[in-house]
Amino acid sequence: MTNALILIIEDEPEIAEIIETYFAREGFRVICAGDGPTGLSHHHRLRPDLVVLDIKLPGQDGYEVLTAIRRRDDTPVIMVTALAEDLDKLQALRIGADDYVVKPFNPLEVVARAKAILRRTMGRSPGQVLRMGPLSVDPQAYLATIDTGSGPVTLDLTPTEFRILAHVTASPGRAFLRSELVDACLPEGEALDRTVDSHVSNLRRKLAAAGADGMLAGVRGVGYRMDFPHGR
C-alpha cells in the first residue's frame, strides 16, 4: 500500500509541500498540481491510487474536479478545505468524496485517513466482478446476472441500464444524486435527470422480474441507492 501514488491538488504551495512531505515519509509516491485542469490532466495520465483535493482552486474548483474524476472512475478522493460548513461537506460527499478534512488540519490525520481508505480499495481491480447478494455484475463482459438458487438469470439490459447498475453496485448503500448518474452513465444526448428516472424504472422492473425486487431503492429528494435488504 505504501507504494501507492497520491495526487495532491492544492494551490497553496506551502500546504501542498507539507502534505507531500508527510506522505513521502510514509513511503508513498506523490505528485502535486496547483490548479484544477493540471490536476485532472495528472489524474488522466497517471491514474493515482488516491487524490487529496482542495475545493478553492484556480481554473476549476474542487467540486468540478471531483465531478470530472467521478465521470472517469472511482479513484478515492479526500477533500481538504477551509470550508467547514455542513452544506459544503454534504455537497462534496454527494458528488463522491470519500472523506473530508477541514483546514487547519494535522497532516498525520490526512495520511491516516488515506491509509484507511486505501486498505479498503487497493485490493479491488478495475475489472473485478461486482457482487451484492444474488447480483453479479461483470464490467468487462457487460454481463449482469441474478442467482436464483436454481441457476443464474442473465439480465437483458441496455448499455445505459448496465452502466447505471454497475455504477451503483460498486458503492452499495451510497445514495447517488440523479445528476451524478447523468454525468457518469448517460450519453450526452440523454443528459436529463428525468431520463435517469426512466432508465432506472426499466432497470428496477428487470431486477424484480429476475427475483431481485427492492435492490435499487429510491431515496426521497436525492436519487437512488443500491441495497440488498435481505443480505445483511
What does the overall shape look like?
elongated
Biggest beta sheet attributes = 5 strands, parallel
> Structurally, how many domains make up the residues?
2
Q: Tell me the number of helical segments per DSSP (H or I, 4 or more residues long).
A: 8
What are the low-pLDDT stretches, counting only 5+ consecutive residues below 50?
none
Q: What's the CATH architecture name of the largest domain?
A: 3-Layer(aba) Sandwich
User: What order do the SSEs take from the amino end to the carboxyl end, as H and E?
Assistant: EHEHEHEHEHEEEEHEHHEE
Overall structural class, as computed from helix and strand content, comes to alpha/beta
Radius of gyration from CA coordinates: 19 Å
CATH topology of the largest domain: Rossmann fold
Walkthrough of the structure:
The protein has 232 residues and is α/β, with parallel strands linked by helices. Helices cover 41% and strands 21% of the residues. Helix 1 (13-25) links the parallel strand 1 (5-9) and strand 2 (29-33). The longest helix is centred in the last third of the chain and has 17 residues, at 193-209. The model has no long low-confidence stretch (mean pLDDT 85).
